[in-house]
Write a structure and sequence with these properties.
Elements lengths: L1 H7 L9 E2 L3 H10 L5 E2 L8 H7 L3 E4 L21 H9 L9 E7 L6 H12 L2 E8 L12 E8 L1
Parallel strand pairs: 1-2, 3-4
Antiparallel strand pairs: 4-6, 5-6
Length: 156
């Protein structure tokens, strides 16, 4: 979604990589955004060296929401679906070049999670400025009505 917003607003950007193991999602991505590196693997499968080679300025991420949904089991860090998120958070302090910006989107409920607390702690240690907000899609001209948790992180 963010990439399409960037395209619509004429912002200058270059996607350095997309990551997914779903072959259908990868076909759709390749069709819509050709000539971009597509890593057909899990996030946890990307090594520190591979992340460093990408040399990115921004991370846009939307970790799996199931561990945090208000109507789900709310297993938080005990849910195996948080592995990809934790892998990125664990790598942040070790990157040779920290990204200038990190944009995270998740469901309402994430803001009360242990995963969020771990992220905030790590980001503060990495000297990021953190801004958090709950955004309803209706605020950005969408027809959906559920609120979404957004975190905008900027390297100080």
């Amino acid at each position: 979604c963010v990439i399409f917003l960037c395209a619509e607003s004429n912002l200058s950007y270059q996607v350095v990589a997309a990551v997914d193991i779903n072959t259908t999602a990868n076909q759709v991505y390749t069709h819509n955004i050709p000539n971009t590196a597509l890593l057909n693997k899990t996030i946890e499968g990307i090594t520190l060296e591979e992340f460093n080679k990408l040399s990115f300025d921004m991370i846009l991420m939307s970790p799996p929401c199931q561990p945090f949904t208000r109507i789900g089991l709310q297993r938080d860090l005990d849910d195996p679906r948080t592995k990809s998120f934790l892998h990125i958070v664990d790598l942040l302090p070790r990157l040779s070049k920290a990204p200038l910006y990190i944009l995270l989107e998740n469901v309402k409920g994430f803001e009360k999670s242990a995963a969020r607390e771990y992220l905030v702690k790590t980001l503060r240690e990495c000297q990021y400025t953190v801004q958090e907000m709950m955004v309803s899609p209706t605020h950005v001209s969408s027809h959906q009505h559920s609120s979404v948790y957004h975190r905008w992180l900027e390297k100080s």
